What does this fold into?
Amino acid sequence: MNTASAAPLTRIQRRNRKLILEAALEVFSQHGFRGATLDQIAAEAGLSKPNLLYYFDNKEAIHRSLLGDLLDSWLAPLRAIDPDGEPRAEILAYVRRKIQMSRDFPRESRLFANEILQGAPRIEGFIRTELRALVAEKAAVIRGWAQAGRIADVDPMHLIFSIWALTQNYADFEAQMRMVRGPHSDPFDGAEDYLETLFSRLLAV
It folds into this structure.
Protein backbone atom coordinates (compact mmCIF):
# COMPACT_ATOMS: atom_id res chain seq x y z
CA MET A 1 0.00 0.00 0.00
CA ASN A 2 1.39 3.38 -0.98
CA THR A 3 0.80 5.37 2.21
CA ALA A 4 2.15 8.57 0.68
CA SER A 5 -0.79 8.93 -1.70
CA ALA A 6 -3.42 6.85 0.11
CA ALA A 7 -6.17 8.15 2.37
CA PRO A 8 -5.41 8.28 6.11
CA LEU A 9 -5.22 4.82 7.66
CA THR A 10 -8.17 3.50 9.59
CA ARG A 11 -7.79 2.30 13.16
CA ILE A 12 -7.63 -1.32 11.99
CA GLN A 13 -5.06 -0.48 9.32
CA ARG A 14 -2.90 1.34 11.88
CA ARG A 15 -3.19 -1.64 14.20
CA ASN A 16 -2.22 -4.11 11.47
CA ARG A 17 0.71 -2.03 10.33
CA LYS A 18 1.95 -1.84 13.93
CA LEU A 19 1.49 -5.63 14.26
CA ILE A 20 3.56 -6.21 11.12
CA LEU A 21 6.40 -3.94 12.23
CA GLU A 22 6.46 -5.47 15.70
CA ALA A 23 6.53 -8.97 14.21
CA ALA A 24 9.21 -7.97 11.70
CA LEU A 25 11.38 -6.54 14.47
CA GLU A 26 11.21 -9.90 16.25
CA VAL A 27 11.99 -11.90 13.10
CA PHE A 28 14.73 -9.62 11.75
CA SER A 29 16.44 -9.35 15.14
CA GLN A 30 16.61 -13.15 15.31
CA HIS A 31 17.40 -14.08 11.72
CA GLY A 32 18.81 -10.93 10.11
CA PHE A 33 17.56 -9.55 6.81
CA ARG A 34 18.73 -12.47 4.69
CA GLY A 35 17.40 -15.15 7.01
CA ALA A 36 13.98 -13.57 7.53
CA THR A 37 11.04 -14.35 5.26
CA LEU A 38 7.67 -12.73 4.65
CA ASP A 39 6.01 -15.99 5.72
CA GLN A 40 7.77 -15.81 9.10
CA ILE A 41 6.77 -12.18 9.58
CA ALA A 42 3.15 -12.86 8.61
CA ALA A 43 2.97 -15.82 10.99
CA GLU A 44 4.50 -13.80 13.84
CA ALA A 45 1.98 -11.01 13.19
CA GLY A 46 -0.94 -13.43 13.00
CA LEU A 47 -1.85 -12.19 9.52
CA SER A 48 -1.98 -13.81 6.11
CA LYS A 49 0.84 -13.12 3.70
CA PRO A 50 -1.53 -11.38 1.21
CA ASN A 51 -2.74 -9.17 4.07
CA LEU A 52 0.85 -8.28 4.94
CA LEU A 53 1.58 -7.41 1.30
CA TYR A 54 -1.34 -4.97 1.34
CA TYR A 55 0.69 -2.81 3.74
CA PHE A 56 4.23 -3.40 2.48
CA ASP A 57 5.33 -4.29 -1.04
CA ASN A 58 8.15 -6.61 0.06
CA LYS A 59 10.55 -7.59 2.83
CA GLU A 60 12.88 -4.73 1.92
CA ALA A 61 10.12 -2.17 2.51
CA ILE A 62 9.40 -3.55 5.98
CA HIS A 63 13.07 -3.61 6.90
CA ARG A 64 13.58 -0.08 5.58
CA SER A 65 10.65 1.18 7.64
CA LEU A 66 12.04 -0.39 10.82
CA LEU A 67 15.51 1.03 10.25
CA GLY A 68 14.09 4.46 9.47
CA ASP A 69 12.24 4.50 12.79
CA LEU A 70 15.33 3.29 14.63
CA LEU A 71 18.11 5.53 13.33
CA ASP A 72 17.04 8.85 14.78
CA SER A 73 16.53 7.40 18.25
CA TRP A 74 19.89 5.61 17.91
CA LEU A 75 21.66 8.98 17.63
CA ALA A 76 19.84 10.63 20.52
CA PRO A 77 22.17 9.47 23.34
CA LEU A 78 25.26 10.77 21.51
CA ARG A 79 23.55 14.02 20.55
CA ALA A 80 22.80 14.62 24.23
CA ILE A 81 26.48 15.06 25.16
CA ASP A 82 26.67 18.72 26.20
CA PRO A 83 29.88 20.57 25.25
CA ASP A 84 29.25 22.97 28.15
CA GLY A 85 28.81 20.21 30.71
CA GLU A 86 31.33 18.68 33.09
CA PRO A 87 33.35 16.32 30.82
CA ARG A 88 33.50 13.18 32.93
CA ALA A 89 29.84 13.49 33.93
CA GLU A 90 28.77 13.96 30.31
CA ILE A 91 30.67 10.89 29.09
CA LEU A 92 29.46 8.69 31.95
CA ALA A 93 25.90 9.85 31.33
CA TYR A 94 26.35 8.76 27.70
CA VAL A 95 27.51 5.34 28.89
CA ARG A 96 24.42 5.06 31.10
CA ARG A 97 22.09 6.08 28.27
CA LYS A 98 23.66 3.49 25.96
CA ILE A 99 23.42 0.64 28.48
CA GLN A 100 19.80 1.62 29.17
CA MET A 101 19.01 1.49 25.44
CA SER A 102 20.53 -1.99 25.27
CA ARG A 103 18.37 -3.05 28.19
CA ASP A 104 15.16 -1.47 26.89
CA PHE A 105 15.59 -2.09 23.14
CA PRO A 106 17.61 -5.31 22.65
CA ARG A 107 15.83 -6.29 19.45
CA GLU A 108 16.48 -2.91 17.90
CA SER A 109 20.16 -3.24 18.81
CA ARG A 110 20.34 -6.66 17.17
CA LEU A 111 18.52 -5.35 14.09
CA PHE A 112 21.16 -2.64 13.75
CA ALA A 113 24.01 -5.09 14.44
CA ASN A 114 22.75 -7.52 11.79
CA GLU A 115 22.61 -4.73 9.23
CA ILE A 116 26.19 -3.70 10.04
CA LEU A 117 27.43 -7.30 9.83
CA GLN A 118 26.06 -7.45 6.28
CA GLY A 119 28.06 -4.35 5.33
CA ALA A 120 25.26 -1.85 6.06
CA PRO A 121 23.81 -1.95 2.50
CA ARG A 122 20.58 -0.24 3.54
CA ILE A 123 22.03 2.41 5.87
CA GLU A 124 25.42 3.13 4.33
CA GLY A 125 24.29 6.63 3.39
CA PHE A 126 23.18 7.33 6.96
CA ILE A 127 26.48 6.10 8.40
CA ARG A 128 28.61 8.07 5.93
CA THR A 129 26.66 11.29 6.50
CA GLU A 130 24.62 11.77 9.70
CA LEU A 131 26.45 9.31 11.96
CA ARG A 132 29.91 10.26 10.69
CA ALA A 133 29.21 13.98 11.15
CA LEU A 134 27.81 13.51 14.65
CA VAL A 135 30.74 11.34 15.76
CA ALA A 136 33.19 13.89 14.37
CA GLU A 137 31.38 16.69 16.22
CA LYS A 138 31.39 14.90 19.57
CA ALA A 139 34.95 13.63 19.08
CA ALA A 140 36.04 17.25 18.67
CA VAL A 141 34.33 18.12 21.96
CA ILE A 142 36.05 15.23 23.77
CA ARG A 143 39.40 16.15 22.19
CA GLY A 144 38.97 19.70 23.43
CA TRP A 145 38.29 18.48 26.97
CA ALA A 146 41.41 16.31 26.85
CA GLN A 147 43.59 19.12 25.49
CA ALA A 148 42.34 21.38 28.28
CA GLY A 149 43.41 18.76 30.83
CA ARG A 150 39.86 18.17 32.03
CA ILE A 151 39.99 14.45 31.21
CA ALA A 152 42.81 12.04 30.36
CA ASP A 153 44.35 12.22 26.90
CA VAL A 154 42.25 9.57 25.17
CA ASP A 155 41.56 9.02 21.49
CA PRO A 156 38.00 10.38 21.24
CA MET A 157 36.83 8.14 18.41
CA HIS A 158 38.17 4.99 20.04
CA LEU A 159 36.49 6.10 23.26
CA ILE A 160 33.14 6.35 21.45
CA PHE A 161 33.72 3.02 19.68
CA SER A 162 34.55 1.39 23.03
CA ILE A 163 31.35 2.71 24.58
CA TRP A 164 29.35 1.30 21.66
CA ALA A 165 31.06 -2.08 21.93
CA LEU A 166 30.79 -2.44 25.69
CA THR A 167 27.17 -1.33 25.98
CA GLN A 168 25.58 -2.85 22.87
CA ASN A 169 27.30 -6.15 23.66
CA TYR A 170 24.75 -6.68 26.44
CA ALA A 171 21.92 -6.69 23.90
CA ASP A 172 23.63 -8.26 20.91
CA PHE A 173 25.18 -11.16 22.86
CA GLU A 174 22.59 -11.46 25.62
CA ALA A 175 22.06 -15.18 24.92
CA GLN A 176 25.76 -15.91 25.46
CA MET A 177 25.82 -13.96 28.72
CA ARG A 178 22.78 -15.81 30.05
CA MET A 179 24.39 -19.15 29.21
CA VAL A 180 27.61 -18.17 30.99
CA ARG A 181 26.01 -16.56 34.03
CA GLY A 182 23.07 -18.96 34.32
CA PRO A 183 19.62 -19.16 32.69
CA HIS A 184 17.87 -17.09 35.36
CA SER A 185 20.52 -14.39 35.62
CA ASP A 186 20.17 -10.81 34.45
CA PRO A 187 23.09 -9.98 32.11
CA PHE A 188 22.66 -6.31 33.00
CA ASP A 189 23.03 -6.88 36.73
CA GLY A 190 25.95 -4.69 37.83
CA ALA A 191 26.78 -3.67 34.26
CA GLU A 192 26.12 0.04 34.67
CA ASP A 193 28.22 0.31 37.85
CA TYR A 194 31.04 -1.71 36.29
CA LEU A 195 31.17 0.37 33.11
CA GLU A 196 30.96 3.62 35.05
CA THR A 197 33.95 2.54 37.16
CA LEU A 198 35.85 1.40 34.05
CA PHE A 199 35.38 4.65 32.15
CA SER A 200 35.89 6.79 35.27
CA ARG A 201 39.35 5.30 35.68
CA LEU A 202 40.11 5.67 31.98
CA LEU A 203 39.17 9.35 32.02
CA ALA A 204 40.83 10.27 35.33
CA VAL A 205 43.52 12.92 35.05
Q: What stands out?
A: Residues 67-203 form a domain with the Tetracycline Repressor; domain 2 fold (CATH 1.10.357.10). The two ends are 57 Å apart (CA to CA). The mean pLDDT is 92. Residues 11-35 form the longest helix (25 residues).
